[in-house]
Amino acid sequence: MIKVSVMYPYAAGVRFDHAYYRERHMPMVKRLLGAACLYYTVDKGISGAAPGSDPIYVAKCDFICMSIEAYRAALNPYLQEIWDDIANYTDIQPVLQVSEVEVERSDA
Amino acid sequence: MIKVSVMYPYAAGVRFDHAYYRERHMPMVKRLLGAACLYYTVDKGISGAAPGSDPIYVAKCDFICMSIEAYRAALNPYLQEIWDDIANYTDIQPVLQVSEVEVERSDA
């Protein structure tokens, strides 16, 4: 099982519409991924380690998938469509990481 | 519900013992957190956006908690103990982010 993490770095003055991201963008990507994505998570950055400090990421999400090949095969035809939608909620260029899920959830 | 993400930035030549982290360190922190932490996740970095590229983080974890106050109150007496254990599995200084959980899991 793998996880694709998409993270939006914080900087002063950046624009990010969390409601659009959560209600429109993420469900759209999930529809495009279909069965290649088991589920996703969405986070809104609050702070860094110190209370009141700036978060590293304004927002981030994880797509939990059976394999990176399935993820890439599913999204490949829609990369332009997804990219075009990003301008609807942010001016941040996201960074992306692929991880192996070592512990999906510790209480499972 | 909040999420504390602890992330270990990749750099060439860094040391990270994923087995120790997964089997020893993370269960220890969960024991110290007690009921303040609902569950945690553990990831091992594979790559960045491009296949074969370096990951942003060698490893990362999320602690899913009811509140940041409960997290801080639970860990505060043990910060030195936790910090001392980090040297047992890595020479990386982790970065930390607190997030609000907007979608815990999309299929729930």
How many domains would you count in the coordinates of chain A? 1
Strand line-up in the sheet with most strands of chain A: 2-3-1-4
CATH architecture of chain A: 2-Layer Sandwich
What name is given to the CATH topology of chain A? Answer: Alpha-Beta Plaits
What's the story with the biggest beta sheet of chain A? 4 strands, antiparallel
The share of residues in extended strands of chain A comes to 25-35%
Q: What labels describe this entry?
A:
homodimer; 4 strands; Alpha-Beta Plaits; alpha+beta; four-stranded antiparallel sheet
Describe this entry's structure for a reader.
- Two copies of one chain form a homodimer.
- The first copy, chain A, has 108 residues and is an alpha+beta fold.
- Chain A has a single domain (2-100), classed as Alpha-Beta Plaits.
- Chain A is built from three helices and four strands, in the order βαββααβ.
- Chain A has helices at residues 18-33, 68-75, 79-86, and strands spanning 2-9, 37-47, 57-65, 95-103.
- Chain A has a four-stranded antiparallel β-sheet with strand order 2-3-1-4.
- The first copy, chain A, starts with a strand and ends in a 5-residue tail after the last strand.
- Chain A binds chain B through residues 2-3, 5, 7, 18, 22, 26-27, 30, 38-49, 51, 55-57, 60-61, 68, 95-108, and chain B through 2-3, 5, 7, 18, 22, 26-27, 30, 38-49, 51, 55-57, 60-61, 68, 95-108.
- Strand 2 of chain A pairs antiparallel with strand 4 of chain B.
